[in-house]
Each structure stands twice: as C-alpha cells, then as structure tokens.
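WARN retry 2 of 3 for item q-0093 after timeout on previous attempt; input resubmitted unchanged.
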Amino acid sequence: MQTIYDFIAQTPSGEPVRLSQYRGKVLLIVNTASKCGLTPQFVGLEKLYEQYCDAGLVILGFPCGQFLGQELKTGLEASQFCTRSYGVTFPMMKKISVNGRDCDPIFTFLKRSAPGVLGNWIKWNFTKFLISRDGEEILRFAPITRPEALEPAIKRFLAAPQDL
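OK item q-0093 returned
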C-alpha cells in the first residue's frame, strides 16, 4: 500500500527530497501562492512551524500557479519571496501543478487519500493536508481554513507515539 513516504519532492533548485526522511514527523503539506488573497496565511503557517517544529511538525510549501496565475514564475522566486516577505523558515519546494494532466504525484496521492468537496480536485491555493506521524491518517483543510485552526489536530497528531 502506497504512503506519503514513497514520494520524492524537489527543492526550488531541483534537489530531490525524499519524503521518507519525515517518517515519524507530523507533516503539513500546503499548495501556496505568492500573489493570492490568502497569501497572508504564511504568517500563521510560520507561527505553527516555529511553535511545533521541535516537537516534530514539518511544513512543506509547494508553490502552484494554477489558480489565476497567482504564483511567481519559479519555485525559487516563490521561496525567496516567502522568506523575504513573511519570514518563512519551513521548507519550500519546486513549483508544481496540483490538478490536471501535469499534477504532481504527491498531490495525486493526497487528493485520493483525502478527497475534498470537489472530489479529487484542489479548489484553490492554500489547501492543506495534515499527515499523522505514521502516515496513515490524512486530514484535508479548505483554503480558507486559517492555519491556527489546525492547531488541535496538530497537537493530537504530535501526541501520537513516535516509535514507528
């Protein structure tokens, strides 16, 4: 059975990131955009990361320009924007597609594992997927769900045993 740990992402510069390195961590995967009305959510995401990273939370941002072209040209530009404008310190990945023929395999898996209102489609920027330490439970949160609203689920997932 396939898990999130079977996938490889890429840094903005194209270096491979094996998601298996996050086994035993709580993962929050978000499709992001730099020029969206929801972009200020980076503040809340960074706050969660700073508060819970030492306890085992990892946030991965995946820039995506599929929604009205609200992302910068490259993942590197998006990553630099996030750091400069919002103080983001969590890992940002290469710019990807989250829907359609060119959908990144990670998001194909996430959408299948935790369908939303539109089924296997991402509705908009800042759709969030929270993944338990063992990779078995995946919760999906709508774009308008503020990062701080995820805190109870994050705490619950962090409280789970780490010996996997």
